[in-house]
Design brief:
By secondary structure, this protein is α+β, with helices and mostly antiparallel strands. It has two domains: 18-69, Roll (SH3 type barrels); 84-180, no CATH class. Helices cover 24% and strands 44% of the residues. It is built from four helices and twelve strands, in the order αββββββββββββααα.
């Protein structure tokens, strides 16, 4: 009976999520519609409805958009390729867009996965990791956040008083509303 209940719950969760098509926007303004896509070090591979595979280098990629429906609620997801160093980047979920953008990236760390929070100012080439859900990052969070948002005195005060390392997206929202 217990196994049947577990199988039923897994099927319900799987069928409760719906995602039909990925809209892949290229930097030249063109768009590819794909049923799925996969990433590697240098490009994404999009598979169209006709089962054609298209490789799109990251330097030609603007963003990927798709919708996820879960229990009658639809969320629009936007992912962008974001450089984090001169030779490394990741596909990251865009959380806030504006003068400063915030992203979430789930990546490996010492044998488990960790959620990292990145921010990038308009015009910057690389994003900065401001925080994570990893305890090791806890000690440098305030210093990194203060250096990144140094042009906004009111936000610097709030970093000391209110904002925590898991609230990078709130910092970016505050910056976009009050500091630019």
């Amino acid at each position: 009976m217990r196994k049947l209940l577990v199988i039923l719950l897994v099927l319900t969760a799987y069928l409760g999520h719906s995602q039909d098509v990925y809209h892949i926007f290229k930097s030249d303004g063109s768009k590819v519609e794909a049923k799925k896509y996969a990433t590697n070090n240098k490009w994404i591979t999009a598979t169209t409805a006709e089962r054609e595979k298209i490789n799109i280098p990251y330097d030609e990629l603007d963003r990927v958009e798709y919708k996820i429906t879960h229990r009658k609620k639809t969320n629009k997801i936007v992912e962008e390729f974001v450089l984090v160093s001169d030779n490394r980047g990741y596909m990251m979920k865009l959380i806030h867009d504006g003068a400063c953008k915030s992203y979430t990236h789930i990546g490996p760390s010492a044998g488990h996965t960790v959620t990292y929070f990145y921010a990038k100012m308009r015009g910057d080439r690389k994003a900065t990791c401001i925080g994570s859900r990893n305890f090791v990052n806890f000690m440098s969070y305030k210093k990194t956040a203060k250096e990144f948002f140094e042009d906004c005195p009111s936000l610097l005060e709030k970093i000391d008083e209110k904002f925590k390392r898991k609230k990078v997206h709130d910092l970016v929202a505050y910056y976009n509303s009050n500091c630019n």
